[in-house]
Design a protein that fits this description.
Enzyme class: transferase
Pfam families: GCV_T, GCV_T_C
Radius of gyration: 21 Å
CATH superfamily of the largest domain: Probable tRNA modification gtpase trme, domain 1
Strand content: 25-35%
Family: Belongs to the GcvT family.
Number of domains: 3
GO biological process, one term: glycine decarboxylation via glycine cleavage system
Shape: globular
Strand order of the largest sheet: 11-12-13-14-10-4-15
InterPro entries: GcvT (IPR006223), GcvT/YgfZ/DmdA (IPR028896), GcvT/YgfZ_C (IPR029043), GcvT_bac (IPR022903), GcvT_C (IPR013977), GCVT_N (IPR006222), TrmE/GcvT-like (IPR027266)
Distance between the termini: 50 Å
Order of helices and strands: EHEEHEEHEEEHEEHEEEEHEHHEEEEEE
């Protein structure tokens, strides 16, 4: 099969650009290829952007995310069969973190599903898995009275994350959100993992209280044409409060501190949810509907399959993805795992990592070593998340 990202002439496809590309470029973004998109990596200092999210707020362009609308009389039944979540149990205006699995229980992608109306859902997937998710959903749609629509090109997605996020949205000129009480919520009453309607510059948008940083915050789904004006208005409101535009580099260290998985690192087609500590979502005990991959995840991973743990290390030298995890020299020093994500934590001040290790060395408190460019760095298994925001 030909890779859809490579045209017939063999040349790589050009990177896709967000509707906010010009706005983020003007803000000083340095760009990188992420899932086939030309996305902001940083605007200046990774550390400054990270700390802004922890202390005030960060503004992220995440328009590379893939969005699919699902509607129709059997929309809930279709998603119940297609995804691990008990989608039909999601209340209107609420959201659920879930996964779309292969028959063998491997993860095709992790998703967020919003129920916007009785028979209307929004499924949000990772940029690099757009085609895989679209293909799987389309195949699983057969026989259901439901419609699948790709909304990726029509929507832009902006995230405001940090302890002052709500205050910034209240101060954003042109953003109207409390009077209509759309979907039964106001901005101040919106629960975590919920969504509400709003209006900006006369155009409808959706405000979700979700995120990928470990902080409170909001994600705003807006039509692509209106997105640059919304970006400017959020900057106008937030800059006096300490908001900074933030890129993918800060987003990665933030999500790592919060112990959140990244597809292609902690999740993949070769990993079952239970190995990544996410067995509780696939399947939930209350779900009665069958779904693709159910038998495999109920049987569980193969005996001895490695499991995901958090590691805290000493000093300042951080392990990185692909570095080996070793048993202590007193126990033979053999390789017992591999790091999937690692960094020197800007918030905590010491190295942290996520790693898949042998079950025998996965208990909290277990002493291990990290092979950092030939040096053994002492580490210890710790409970996740590494960081929890203050209430």
């Amino acid at each position: 099969m030909t890779d859809p990202a490579i045209p017939a002439d063999g040349a790589p496809a050009p990177l896709r650009r967000s509707p906010l590309h010009d706005a983020t470029s003007t803000a000083g973004a340095a760009f990188t290829d992420f899932g086939g998109w030309d996305m902001p990596l940083r605007y200046g200092s990774d550390l400054a952007e990270h700390h802004a999210v922890r202390q005030a707020a960060g503004l992220f362009d995440i328009s590379h995310m893939a969005e699919f609308g699902v509607s129709g009389p059997q929309a809930a039944e279709f998603l119940d069969a297609a995804l691990a979540a008990d989608v039909s149990a999601i209340a209107v205006s609420r959201a659920k973190y879930t996964m779309i699995l292969a028959e063998d229980g491997g993860v095709i992608d992790d998703l967020i599903v919003y129920r916007n109306a009785e028979s209307e859902y929004l499924v949000v997937a990772n940029a690099g898995n757009h085609d895989a998710v679209a293909q799987a959903l389309l195949q699983r749609l057969q026989g259901f009275d439901a419609t699948l629509a790709d909304a990726t090109d029509a929507l832009a997605l902006v995230a405001v994350q940090g302890p002052l996020a709500r205050q910034i949205l209240h101060a954003t000129p042109g953003l109207e959100h409390d009077d209509a009480k759309a979907m039964g919520h106001t901005l101040d009453s919106l629960p975590y993992y919920a969504i509400m309607g709003a209006v900006f510059a006369g155009r409808p948008l959706l405000i979700a209280r979700t995120g990928y940083t470990g902080e409170d915050g909001f994600e705003l789904y807006v039509d692509a044409a209106t997105a640059p004006l919304l970006w400017s208005a959020l900057l106008e409101a937030g800059t006096p409060l300490g908001l900074l535009p933030a890129g993918l580099a800060a987003r990665d260290t933030l999500r790592l501190e919060a112990g959140m998985p990244l597809y292609g690192h902690e999740l993949s087609r070769d990993i079952q949810p239970a190995q990544a500590g996410l067995g509780r979502i696939a399947p939930p005990a209350s779900k009665t509907a069958d779904f693709v991959g159910r038998a495999a995840v109920e049987s569980g991973p193969a005996e001895g399959a490695r499991v995901l743990v958090g590691l805290a290390a000493e000093g300042r030298r951080a392990g990185r993805a692909g570095y080996a995890v070793l048993a202590p020299e007193s126990d033979g020093g053999a390789p017992v795992g591999e790091i999937t994500s690692g960094a020197l934590s800007p918030t905590l001040g010491h190295p942290i990592a996520l790693a898949f290790v042998d079950p025998a060395v996965a208990a909290v408190g277990q002493a291990l070593d990290l092979d950092v460019r030939g040096s053994r760095i002492p580490a210890r298994v710790v409970a996740l998340p590494f960081y929890t925001r203050k209430k």
